[in-house]
Amino acid sequence: MKASDLRGYSLHELHQLLHQKRQELQELRYKNAQSPLSTAPSTIPALRRTIARILTILNEKRHERAKNR
Questions:
Q1: With respect to CATH, is domain 3-68 assigned 2.60.120?
Q2: 10: part of which helix (H) or strand (E)?
Q3: What angle do CA 62, 26, 8 make, to 5 degrees?
Q4: Can you tell me the distance from the alpha carbon of 41 to that of 39, in angstroms, rounded to the nearest whole number?
Q5: How far is Cα 7 from Cα 30, in angstroms, rounded to an integer?
Q6: CA distance 35 to 14
Q7: Which of 1, 32, 35, 58 is geometrically suited to a Cys-Cys bond with 40, CB 3.0 to 4.6 A?
Q8: Which helix (H) or strand (E) holds 41?
């Protein structure tokens, strides 16, 4: 996902998406530990980057909220 796409989400939606992506990452790591997956080497880092983007947008929105108060 692109950061510009994520900026359109509300805080609640971002938290839900973050929870969902973290669960996906956990499941993918577990499956990869059981038996190496052919898609895991490229999907695990991509998923980690998506989670980082979500966290960045969440922090931006929190700072905006604090600044406007």
A1: no
A2: none
A3: 30
A4: 6
A5: 30
A6: 31
A7: 32
A8: helix 40-68
Counting Cα atoms < 13 Å in the Cβ hemisphere of 50 gives 19
Q: How does pLDDT run across 6-42, given as a tens digit for each residue? A: 999 999 999 999 999 999 999 999 988 888 878 767 8
The reported pLDDT for the residue numbered 56 is 96
Residue 48 CA to its chain's centroid (Å) = 7
What is the rounded end-to-end Cα distance, in angstroms, of the chain? 30
Cα 4 from Cα 10, distance rounded (Å): 13
- For residue 55, the Cα-to-chain-centroid distance in whole angstroms is 7
- Judge whether residue 3 has pLDDT over 80: yes
The domain ranges of the chain are 3-68
